[in-house]
Amino acid sequence: MIQENSVDVLVIGAGISGLTAAREILKCDAKLKVTVLEADGRVGGRMLTEPLPCANGKTEVFDLGAGYVSKSQTHIMDLVNEFGLQVYPQYTKGKKIMQLGKANDPKVYQTEIPPLSIPALVESELMRRKVESLIKKVPIEDPYSVENAEKKDCNSIASQTKHWMFTKDAYNTFDAAFRAVFGADSSRISYLFALAFCNSCGGGMRLFQANEFGAQEYKIKGGTQQICELLADQIGRENVLLNHFVSCIKQSKESVEVRTKDGKVFSSRYLIVTIPPHRIPFLQFDPPLPEVRRIMYENIPAGNLTKFVATYETPFWREKGFSGEVVSDGGKSPLPGCDRGPVSITYDGTTTTGSPALLGFIGSREAIQWNEKTDEERKHAVLGALANFFGDEALNPTAYREYSWDKNPYIQGGPVNIVPPGMMKDYPTIRKPFGRVFFAGADTATYWVGYMSGGVQSGQRAAAEVLHNIKGDSFPRERLLGTVYGPMKYDKKIPLDGTQPSIWDYGLVADIFGMRSLE
């Protein structure tokens, strides 16, 4: 056993939450000693940027993890602007594709109105309005404060959606969208959690949008992982220790002792844990976590997600008038052992210098089943799906790369953690301190839960909580807003303008049914 020097604050996890927390503490007081312990051999967490061969012999970098930011995500945008990084809009010009059911025939549409029957369109819009109204009433800080919270919690997204929707296409559309966001079947997710999750983002529709204020509004030139690299530089690389897998946490009234898998021991006055919630039960706590909290962590798994990028010599989909956007429930599976084809959603991934690329996701049950296939089988199926959408040119990429977050030993899933039906009553404890141990991470956020912006916000919150304990009354009280030491609920820094377009905005269905008066 090797004893390391004692510090003021230890942070477990060098993703954006942990690095933000460490930097916030040092910004407040550069004399404090802060050390970040990271199990992996790199910084970034779920932010991973890697180089790929591109057209004309060039090499460009692409995000294989978190890849989008938005003006509505003010916490991450503050960092982007501070570091002088360039953002560029997601390409959305042209025809879009929707594929529902096990038929392989994709449906093409030009406007924001999906290619559904009139009854399905009407039902979808009425569902959207009802859900958006409920979302505003379910605060992520205290979901059980809403009326009939237990009933909402006991229902899954799937059961509630089926209760309200009768047309199959409308239901399949909502189901495909939610699977893409959470990386999990809607039958596995608490309806109350979904409402609270959407509340943290300023609304439900914005999760699925690539327009202004939508979750897929911008990409970052040079990739997202560079944000973590820049944060690590500011903290000091000597204070960010890679390949340090923490296994035990022991705390007393005066200090916290942390032990790594290879026997190194670190001590500190306070500790911030930023690893994904479902990984926390693998840490040995002394004294142990409260039973209610341990059970909660054990029952909020991560979704299942694989992200892929294919680069090409030409943007053939653009030349054919397509935007590159696809929403699919997978269609018919090309191989036995998989219920559907692999692809859930795709976007145009072309870089700022014009190197053509398509990116997409394999999510939910499909991610699990297709991970059982060989790399070559999975690649062949993905490229086959892209060819079905955009033409045979998709079968011959310049390069193809995929990353399964399920297979990352330190993260084991993505893009977010989900809460199953019946588990939301204790959910707010996810961000509650335990003695001298504090908790951050995108899944503990109250703004944009599960997103990079939520990671930044939660890191700032945990840092403020620790600094309050270190500094006492000298720490500014206004910085305790949104922490356990101040009002947890406060005005969210989320712009609300221009974020909820509906099919009525385009006039088609409203004119047919004479329902403009509903506005």
From TrEMBL:
It is found in: Mitochondrion outer membrane. Transmembrane segments: none annotated. Its EC number is 1.4.3.-. InterPro entries: Amino_oxidase, FAD/NAD-bd_sf, Flavin_amine_oxidase, Flavin_MAO. The keyword Lipid metabolism does not apply. Pfam families: Amino_oxidase (PF01593). SUPFAM superfamilies: FAD-linked reductases, C-terminal domain, FAD/NAD(P)-binding domain. Its cofactor is FAD. Substrate binds at F361. It comes from the Eukaryota. It catalyses: a secondary aliphatic amine + O2 + H2O = a primary amine + an aldehyde + H2O2. Its main location: mitochondrion. It is a single-pass type IV membrane protein. One of its GO terms (molecular function) is primary methylamine oxidase activity. This is Amine oxidase. The lineage of its organism: Eukaryota, Metazoa, Ecdysozoa, Arthropoda, Crustacea.
